[in-house]
Amino acid sequence: MKRVAAVDLGASSGRVMLGEVGPDVLRLSELNRFWNGPVRANGTLYWDVLQLYRSVLDGLHLAGAVDSIGIDSWAVDYGLLDKSGRLLGNPIHYRDTRTEGVMERVLATIPAADLYGVTGLQQLPFNTIYQLAAEELPADAATLLMIPDLLAYWLTGAIGVERTNASTTQLYDVRTREWSDELISRVGVPRQLFPALHEPGDVVGRVVDNALPEGVPVIAVGTHDTASAVVAVPAAGERFAYISSGTWSLVGLELDAPVLTEAARAANFTNEGGVDGRIRFLRNVMGLWILQECQRIWADHDLDGLLRDAAGAPPFAVLIDPDAPEFLAPGNMPGRIDEHCRRTGQEPPRSRAAVVRCILESLALAYRRTLRSARAIAGRDVDVLHVIGGGSRNELLCQLTADATGLPVLAGPVEASALGNVLVQARALGEPLPDLDAMRALVRSTHRLRQYQPQGKPADWDAAESRMFGTR
Questions:
Q1: Sign, Cα dihedral of 165, 166, 170, 174
Q2: For 6, phi and psi rounded to 5 degrees?
Q3: 267 — alpha (psi -120 to 50), left (phi > 0) or beta?
């Protein structure tokens, strides 16, 4: 039996899990769960990375003796080290406003088609390339590390960046699977900032102090949390789609090679690296962030009650585009929904139940549209849709997603990122899990899934999509 510690950091919460893997065994035990969110100081939105690291250490202390440690987190954000290895300030949060207008400025010098032809990435204003272009880099900056690589460096003293997270920077060549020297030069960032790349499963280094047992290997997993989550999609075969559902919704397919066509670029699909060289062909949809911000403003943490009330609210009364830019930054989300409705000629929702129904139906419609585009562009048939992550517990959203897409939905596992993290570590330690099929078979045999069959009238969803996007 392998015992490993999985550090899984999301954009709103983090957790340290103990994973146990053996023949017909895949178990997770939660050791430490903690809040993770932005801190605004002097007008800038930061990550409190030292508090985050302390929470990670607290969880690792509780793990006791383990065979290895793996770390995954959200994408695009980074820390800068000086030549002595000291962190040059807190990493800035991707929702900070410093990148406003930067994407357009960069695209004026690097044509969007050229950028997509190298990176295959969806245009998002907070991609690492635009964060770096927005920043006046410190003169003594020597190394850039993505968030999981920064924490691994503090544990081990070893420097490197894992490929799945590097692939989200828009400075990585998705075909050669290396940093793009050309793009780094064209955006005006020093090439020496970018360290050597690790594969998922590589031993990054060994724990050196931190009051933890020395010598424990830190293994590079799919350090982008979605890459780890997709490892744990309990699919049989390849005719599946997935939604990694949480603060963000990552909606797409798993492919063997990137799709770099003009159709893929025009539809704003991304080709991110996955474990075992796979490609995560997907789009980012705003996700449950909008609902989370509404709950924060309402100071209402009874999600179950909100969902019960929303299930009884009239369908399709109000619809929003969840990817509209006004929903990106923290703030008064209920007020922004009202403004969005007035601007689009709709009567704003008058109750919390109506707001929640509006958010979830709008998300389901965005999933519907995204999956239809992904299937057409990639030429992939899909028989089943897997919903993984925290959103898989949201029964109303899962049913609406089945209804909207016309696909059976299999929901679970909830802790998919941590499970994928654990599975990659276990294989690196010698567990007989030779490929993704074997890992997914173990997930299927050890975790209960919930199935949702499509209900209702497809014509109602056709009409709602036409209202929301102006086209079918």
A1: negative
A2: -110, 115
A3: alpha
Write out the two tokens for 469: 């996007």
Beta strands in 270-332, from DSSP E residues, in sequence order:
270-273, 279-285
Rounded Cα gap, residues 159 and 432, in angstroms:
29
Catalytic residues: 225
Other beta carbons less than 10 A from residue 266's beta carbon: 13
User: What is the SS3 assignment for 379?
Assistant: coil
pLDDT, tens only, 394-426: 999 999 999 999 999 999 999 999 999 999 999
- Joined together, the tokens standing for residue 6 give 């999985």
CA distances from 184 to 94, 133, 164, 191, 212 (A): 19, 10, 18, 6, 37
Separation CA 219–CA 447 (nearest Å): 24
Residue 72 is given by DSSP the state E
3-state secondary structure of 281: strand
C-alpha 170/C-alpha 240 separation (Å) is: 26
Residue 472 is predicted with a pLDDT of: 34
Q: What's the whole-number average pLDDT of the chain?
A: 96
Q: Which residue has the tokens 């929003």?
A: 320
Ranges assigned E (strand) in 185-225: 197-198, 203-206, 217-219
Burial string for 59-73 (b: 16+ CB within 10 Å, else e) reads bbeebeebbbbbbbb
How does pLDDT run across 208-225, given as a tens digit for each residue?
977 788 999 999 999 999
Q: How many C-beta atoms surround the C-beta of residue 80 within 10 A?
A: 21
Q: Exposed, middle or buried by CB within 10 Å (0-12, 13-18, 19+), for 165?
A: buried
Q: Which residue is associated with the tokens 């509209």?
A: 324
Report which residue type is found at 119. T
CA distance 259 to 267: 12
Copy the structure tokens of residue 249: 């919704």
DSSP letter assigned to residue 216:
P
Distance CA 164, CA 198 (A): 9
